[in-house]
Specification:
The chain has 86 residues and is an alpha+beta fold. Strands 1-2-3 form a three-stranded antiparallel sheet, with no helix packed on it. A hairpin with a 2-residue loop joins strand 4 and strand 5. The longest helix is centred in the middle third of the chain and has 7 residues. The chain is globular and about 35 Å long.
């Protein structure tokens, strides 16, 4: 069987512990201004809808629709170029 490489997305060294990762110009929060809870994520099939658009670019930067994963410390990275994020 084919076993793809699995690596973690890395926050920038200046990111704060516990900080949310954001995507410029996107708001993924629920109706109450808070992230969707685990139960709601499953019911709404959020990950099924956005999953195909979560990729890493040729430089290993994780992106959603061409926009990088960000923190206050800068752009997140991945050691896998041209991959998928799950």
């Amino acid at each position: 069987a084919d076993h793809p490489d699995v690596r973690l997305v890395n926050p920038p060294v200046d990111a704060k512990v516990g900080e949310r990762v954001t995507i410029p110009d996107f708001n993924f929060e629920g109706e109450e201004g808070e992230p969707y809870g685990e139960n709601k994520l499953g019911k709404k099939k959020v990950l099924d809808k956005v999953g195909p658009f979560l990729v890493t670019n040729k430089y290993g930067v994780p992106e959603f629709l061409g926009r990088p994963f960000m923190t206050s410390g800068g752009v997140c990275t991945s050691p896998i170029p041209d991959g998928t994020v799950s």
